């Protein structure tokens, strides 16, 4: 069982929820953590159990980052919107930096998330 963090920018939340619905059976085998809004949407739209953290801009990104540092997260699925400026861009960069530094699987889009899920 892998510990998977789920987060998506506002313009990518629908896509993440569709991805989670498509992979619902496989995701149900893992421990899921999500930033507040993203995690709540995934639960509401798929029925999957997601442990909710704070909303990303309110500290959820940092909570996921702490989990990475503490070795409590194996995979980060973070659907990023590359075309919109994010007011909490510093948090986003810190989270992706930590995923890279601590060498956990990181998926920023559907294709990579498919490959990561197939590998765990």
UniProtKB/TrEMBL annotation:
Positions contributing to substrate binding: 9, 13, 35-38, 55-56, 88
Family: Belongs to the methylglyoxal synthase family.
Matches recorded under PROSITE patterns: METHYLGLYOXAL_SYNTH, MGS
Lineage: Bacteria, Pseudomonadati, Pseudomonadota, Alphaproteobacteria, Hyphomicrobiales
Protein's name in the database: Methylglyoxal synthase
Domain (MGS-like): residue spans on this chain: 1-120
EC code: 4.2.3.3
Source taxon at top rank: Bacteria
Catalytic reaction annotation: dihydroxyacetone phosphate = methylglyoxal + phosphate
One GO cellular component term: cytosol
Function, as annotated: Catalyzes the formation of methylglyoxal from dihydroxyacetone phosphate.
Listed GO biological process terms: methylglyoxal biosynthetic process
Class in the EC hierarchy, top level: lyase
